[in-house]
Structures are given as structure tokens and as C-alpha cells.
Design brief:
alpha/beta, about 40% helix, about 270 residues, 9 strands, 9 helices
């Protein structure tokens, strides 16, 4: 009877806390749902003080060397499946629910690092503009910073006709309205600058999918004019792929530094 009661307690606690579905790169992985979306959380073996975390907004597991290095330093790694939403307002509500869940249910830091690979840049920048108080810093990698550039293909990039159609649908815009839209990251940097959110962007100099000049290059120019702090690393002879850096030390150091500063600033 005693063993049955203990088993029942374990099963009940798992139902509320989320059971470890599997391991990921040697770390415990929790799979669960928030706001009707599939989510996951990777748990470090020894959480760092204050439980800092990095939030991969798209393409979880792709070029994961930075995430793995941060797990080794005690960061949690989080992901919510928001595919085919392109950082649209509808996605922001889901993201806010996910953030609230991780902070209240898992005790993670109120300020996260947003990690936006490719189209994930739209999610990262748009969430930060709407919720600057919830962001310690932003790390983006070959990020889309203007949907007119990708998937629209209205500049020098290739674009994607299918994604452009889906993007317009996600935002609820006609093409004419989309071309006049003023809340793309390149146009909406002032909330980030006022909150003094540091940005790191890693790009390839010959990216013909998400051209640097139309995306991170334009963000850097405008953000610095607003007084914002941004570091742009441009990899020579590198296209849209591969993402990240073979040695992620610069990425990891940036994330650790600015989470530490954010945590210290929050102390009474």
C-alpha cells in the first residue's frame, strides 16, 4: 500500500510539473503545453543563481553550440512552437503566456535572453519591443528584421512567395498594407533603446536570403542613432547558413555578461 501511495504522489506531481520526456544533449528535457502551444524546457545540471534562461524563438536544436555552452553555465533553454506566425501580434500573446508560465511555475528569471535565428528575429525583436522589461539582452543570428525583405523579397533578397502569403495572413494584412507597415523591427527600435537592451547579431556577408544591409545592418545603423548598444559580427564568405559561430564563446560571453548586469540591476 505504501509503495502504491508513493507512486501515486510521483504521478500526480509529474502531471503538474511536467515530466521529463527525454534527454537533450545530455540535459533533462521537459515537454508541455502552454496556451495551446507545444513547449519545451531544457534543464541545466546546476542552475545558475537567479535561474537565467535563453529563449530560442525558432529552429530549436539547429546549430545548438551556444545553447549547450550556456546550459553548461547553468542557463535554462526554452522554446515554444510558433511556426508560421512570423512574429505577428497573434504570436505575442502566446509568448507572453509562455514567459509568465516559466517565471511563475519554474522560477526562472523575469528577464530572458531572446535568441532569434533567421525568421526567429521577428519574434525576438517584436516581443522585446512590446515587453522590454522582460528582456535582459537579444542575440539574433542572420535575423529577419523586416518582413518586406523576407519573405516579401521586396529588396535584394530571394524572398519566398509561399511564406509571404502566409505572413500576410498571420498579420491580417493586404500586400499594400504590409508594404506600409511601421512595426517591423527596423522601424520599431525605440522601445528597446529606451530600455537599454543590448543586441548581438551574427550574420553572413553574402547572405542572399536575409541580406545584411536590409536587416541587421539597418538595425545597427538606426539603433546606434537612438543610443542603443549593438554588436554586429559579419562572417566573411558566409551565406544564410551556417548559423552561429563554430566557437560560440563571443555569444556565450555576451549573454552571460548582460544577464549578470540585469540581475545586479534588479537587486534592491
Amino acid at each position: 500500500m505504501r509503495h502504491f501511495v508513493l507512486l501515486l504522489i510521483v504521478l500526480m506531481s509529474g502531471a503538474f510539473a511536467g515530466e521529463p520526456a527525454k534527454m537533450w544533449s545530455g540535459f533533462e528535457r521537459l515537454d508541455f503545453n502552454v496556451d495551446g502551444r507545444t513547449c519545451l524546457l531544457i534543464i541545466p545540471k546546476t542552475p545558475a543563481e537567479g535561474k537565467p534562461w535563453i529563449w530560442r524563438t525558432e529552429f530549436f536544436g539547429h546549430e545548438p553550440q551556444g545553447d549547450i555552452a550556456l546550459l553548461q553555465k547553468g542557463f535554462h533553454v526554452a522554446y515554444m512552437d510558433l511556426q508560421n506566425m512570423y512574429g505577428a501580434p497573434v504570436a505575442m500573446g502566446h509568448m507572453e503566456a509562455f514567459h509568465a508560465h516559466l517565471v511563475s511555475k519554474h522560477g526562472l528569471s523575469a528577464r530572458t535572453t531572446l535568441e532569434g535565428f533567421s525568421r526567429g528575429g521577428l519574434f525576438a525583436f517584436n516581443f522585446a519591443a512590446k515587453n522590454p522589461e522582460k528582456v535582459a539582452c537579444i542575440y539574433v543570428d542572420a535575423p529577419v528584421c523586416d518582413f518586406k525583405s523576407w519573405p516579401g523579397g521586396k529588396g535584394k533578397g530571394k524572398g519566398s512567395a509561399g511564406d509571404w502569403k502566409n505572413c500576410l495572413k498571420a498579420y491580417g494584412l493586404t500586400e499594400e498594407q504590409a508594404l506600409a507597415y511601421k512595426l517591423n523591427p527596423v522601424d520599431n527600435l525605440e522601445p528597446l533603446a529606451k530600455a537599454k537592451i543590448p543586441i548581438l547579431s551574427v550574420c553572413g556577408d553574402i547572405d542572399d536570403v536575409v541580406p545584411v544591409a536590409e536587416n541587421s545592418g539597418l538595425v545597427e545603423e538606426r539603433y546606434k542613432k537612438l543610443g542603443g548598444e549593438m554588436t554586429l559580427i559579419v562572417k566573411p564568405n558566409n551565406g544564410h547558413h551556417p548559423h552561429s559561430l563554430k566557437d560560440p564563446a563571443q555569444i556565450v560571453n555576451f549573454v552571460v555578461k548582460h544577464n549578470t548586469l540585469a540581475a545586479n540591476a534588479a537587486k534592491p
